[in-house]
Every structure is written in structure tokens, then in C-alpha cells.
Write a structure and sequence with these properties.
The chain has 13 helices and 14 strands. It has about 425 residues and is α+β, with helices and mostly antiparallel strands.
């Protein structure tokens, strides 16, 4: 008996009781749909986390001033970092591509008769865009000379363009920050919202020296943090070690003494979050997989009933020359067909559910940008698993059918 004939007989046998076959398939449908949805949502969360950390920049490391403690209570960060630290890291660390000091500020900005309070207003170095991997949409960025002279120039994000200039070209325009005029020399490319829904395009960048001298009126060279970019992902750990060594030497910190700075590797944080989201995905998929076992039990029950109902048919086939292997294969094919049909339907429902949930999250959560991720390997694995469920739970009924005595089967009423 050819495989095609066996398959046709299996379809004919299952179609005789469509209601029972449909209810049997339902368990597998629910199981595969649940697993597909959980895996898809989990991978979407993981991709979102990775994407948000990539938006911080290219292989970014952040140097923070160490928090002070008094009586076991955190008192805040001491101003221990300087722009010279950032320059030393860029010059002396072979694994570091670029660095930028960061100095925070806050104020209303005014253009004409319109004012706006940016979410983020910071002073940065000339290599800030290299570190953040943030291209310009138009215009240019300030130079080393602008930084040294504390020039009154700025670069703005797309949100500020929309709020202050609408359709007017902002390049060359003047905006006032605390009554100090600044010339807009560039507009940043759009980045969108971050992982917590904050608008990354609501930003104004100035030379850090300009913020220190003109907005803060400070004569000191201290900066808030230092951003550094490793030359590649593989060099992140090496770059972190080099930065630590350079900072220890520059700050004259002896072995055993507490450092007055902390280096954070954003890749490690992203990897930890990915592990967390991956573990949650695996746990949810495992829970959803329980319904597949329930569906498999339903297949076994249906096939056992089918063997009982078709005992006489089995006897007739054996009497005309069918072998035990033919009977075993026949019932196994029926079981696999049931599970594969359920798997295909479940996969389609899972994809639809994933798309619906992703769309709902993006609509409900302000600024959310969850990606829609459907893993083809996971989809193929789901179908293979569905077929495996059919073989596993269908084997015993098929084996029972193949071992029937032809004479007893013919006498069965």
C-alpha cells in the first residue's frame, strides 16, 4: 500500500466523524496557538530590550561618579569626573573608539513667540554623535573649536523642531536659553521613544563648555558622566578594563582603596534583561505546552475509540492480506494527520494572536513600539512538535490495532 493511498484512507476515515475529529484537533490547536503566541511575545520583548539598548549608542560604556555614603546612607554623587578624564580615555585606551563628557542642564527655550521645555538638555563633546551612533538629519555638529571656545551653538531633535519651528527651516535660526541666544546648526535624525515611552527626540545638545560657563556660570571642569564607545562588541570587556585602569591611575587610587567612579557596561545590562525575558518566555511556553499534552491525550482517546469501532474492518483487511505493519502505519497516519492539521490551524491562530496583542500593546502604551516577531524556526518546531505528539500518543492505539487477531476481529460485533 503506497503512502498516498494510506493518506487518502486516513482522511476518509477521519471525515466519517467530523465532529469528533474537530473536537480532538481542538486541544492541539489551543496548545500550538498558545505556545506560538507566548514565544512570539517573548521574542518581541527581547528584541525591544536589545533595540532600546542599541539606541543608547554603539557599544556604550558609561563612567559614573561614585555615590558618597555617610553613616551607611547614600548622600549623592561627588563631582569626581572631568572632561580631561574623557580625553584621557579616548587617547590612552586602544579599545575605545570615542568618548564624550556629559553635563546636564534644564531651562525653557524660546524661538520667536513660542517656548518649550525640552525633556533633555545636555552639554556634550564633539564626538557625542559617534558614541551614540546618532546621525544628523540635516546640518552639522559642533567642532572641537566650538567646544574650546564655549560657542553659543546647538543641535536639536525632531520634537523641538515640531514644537518651535513647525514647517520653517530651523538651520541658522536663533533660540534663547535663559536669555542667551544660540544658533541652531543641526537637526538630529529621529530616534522615537525609549523603552519607558520617553521621547528621545525631545533633546537639545550644546557644547559642554557652553553649559558650564554660560548656563551654570561654573569655573570648574567637572562633568556629570562620561560616555565611551568600544571599537566593537567583542572589545567591550577589554575597553571596560582599560577605562578602569586609566581612571585608577588618573585619580591616584591605590590598590585596596575604594574607587571614586563606576564603569557600567550597557551590553551586560542588556544581556541580563534578555536572559530574564528569555526565561519568562520559556516558562510561559512550557505552561502553554501543557495544553499540547492534553490535546495528545485527546488524540489517544479518539484513536482508541476508532480502533474499537473499526475492529471488524481491521479483521477484513488482515484476512485479505494486510500485514500488521500496514495496520500500524494506517492508524499512525490518522493520528499524525489529526495533530498536524491542529498544529497548522494553531500556528495561524498564534500568529494572528501575536499580531493582535502587539497592536493592542502599542495602542494602549503611550510611546511603545513593540516589534512584531514571528520566528520561522519556532514555527517549524511547533509543527514538528505537533506531529511528534500525534506519533507519541497515536502509537499505542495503532500498536493495539496491529496486534488484533484476525479471527477474533472478524467475529467482533
Amino acid at each position: 500500500m503506497t503512502s498516498w493511498i494510506t493518506f487518502r484512507i486516513a482522511l476518509r476515515a477521519l471525515s466519517k466523524n467530523k465532529m469528533r475529529a474537530g473536537l480532538t484537533v481542538l486541544g492541539v490547536v489551543i496548545g500550538i496557538a498558545a505556545v506560538t503566541t507566548m514565544v512570539s511575545i517573548g521574542q518581541s520583548a527581547s528584541q525591544l530590550v536589545q533595540g532600546q539598548f542599541q539606541s543608547l549608542g554603539t557599544n556604550v560604556l558609561v563612567v559614573f561618579p561614585q555615590m558618597q555614603r555617610r553613616g551607611g546612607v547614600r548622600q549623592g554623587a561627588a563631582p569626581t569626573l572631568t572632561a580631561k578624564d574623557a580625553k584621557a580615555i579616548a587617547d590612552e585606551a586602544p579599545s575605545v573608539l570615542a568618548t564624550s563628557p556629559i553635563v546636564g542642564a534644564s531651562a525653557q527655550i524660546i524661538a520667536g513667540n513660542t517656548n518649550w521645555s525640552p525633556r533633555e538638555m545636555i552639554g556634550v563633546g564633539e564626538d557625542y554623535l559617534v558614541v551614540r551612533n546618532w546621525p544628523l538629519r540635516r546640518g552639522g555638529f559642533f567642532s572641537e573649536r566650538d567646544v574650546q571656545s564655549a560657542a553659543k551653538v546647538c543641535v536639536i531633535g525632531r520634537t523641538i523642531v515640531a514644537k518651535l519651528f513647525q514647517t520653517t527651516n530651523p538651520l541658522g535660526a536663533t533660540i534663547r536659553v535663559r536669555n542667551i541666544p544660540f544658533t541652531v546648526i543641526g537637526v538630529l535624525e529621529t530616534k522615537g521613544a525609549n523603552i519607558v515611552g520617553e521621547d528621545q527626540d525631545d533633546i537639545l545638545l550644546m557644547p559642554y563648555t557652553t553649559v558650564q560657563k554660560r548656563l551654570q556660570g561654573s569655573q570648574f571642569n567637572n562633568v556629570g558622566v562620561v560616555l565611551a564607545s568600544a571599537r566593537s562588541m567583542a572589545l567591550m570587556t577589554t575597553a571596560e578594563q582599560e577605562i578602569n585602569q586609566i581612571m585608577l591611575e588618573r585619580h591616584h587610587i591605590r590598590s585596596g582603596d575604594a574607587a571614586d567612579f563606576t564603569v557600567r557596561n550597557t551590553t551586560e545590562i542588556a544581556n541580563v534583561l534578555s536572559i530574564v525575558t528569555g526565561s519568562m518566555t520559556l516558562m510561559l511556553a512550557s505552561i502553554a505546552g501543557i495544553s499540547l499534552v492534553v490535546g495528545g491525550v485527546g488524540i489517544m482517546n479518539t484513536m482508541l475509540v476508532s480502533v474499537t469501532e473499526r475492529t471488524r474492518e481491521i479483521g477484513i483487511r488482515m484476512a485479505v492480506g494486510a500485514r500488521s505493519g500496514n495496520i500500524l502505519r494506517q492508524f499512525l497516519v490518522e493520528s499524525v494527520v489529526l495533530s498536524c492539521v491542529g498544529g497548522a490551524i494553531g500556528l495561524l491562530l498564534g500568529v494572528g494572536a501575536s499580531a493582535g496583542i502587539t497592536t493592542l500593546i502599542n495602542k494602549i502604551s503611550s510611546g511603545a513600539d513593540w516589534p512584531m516577531v514571528i520566528s520561522m524556526p519556532a514555527a517549524v518546531l511547533a509543527l514538528v512538535f505537533a506531529a511528534s505528539v500525534g506519533i507519541f500518543f497515536g502509537f499505542y492505539p495503532a500498536l493495539k490495532a496491529s496486534r488484533l487477531d484476525p479471527i477474533d476481529a472478524l467475529r467482533y460485533e
